[in-house]
Amino acid sequence: MKKPVYLDYAATTPVDPAVAEEMIKYLTPEGFFGNPASRSHGFGWQAEAAVEAARGQVASLIHADPREIVWTSGATESDNLAIKGAVAGRDKAHVITSTIEHKAVVDTCKWLEGRGVEVTWLEPERDGVIRPQQVFDALKPETLLVSLMLVNNELGCVTDIATIGTELRNRGVLFHVDAAQAAGKLAVDVTTMPVDLMSLSGHKVYGPKGVGALYVRRSPDVRIEAQIHGGGHERGMRSGTLPTHQIVGMGKAFAISQLCLEEEIGKLEALRAEFLGGLEGLSGVTLNGSDTCRVPGIMNLSFDGVDAESLMLGLRHLAVSSGSACASATLAPSYVLLGIGLGEELAHRALRFSIGRFTTSEEIAFASTQIVEVVTRLRAVR
Ligand SMILES: *Cc1c(COP(=O)(O)O)cnc(C)c1O
Question: Scanning 196, 286, 343, 380, which has its CA 20 to 30 A from the CA of 48?
Answer without folding.
Answer: 196
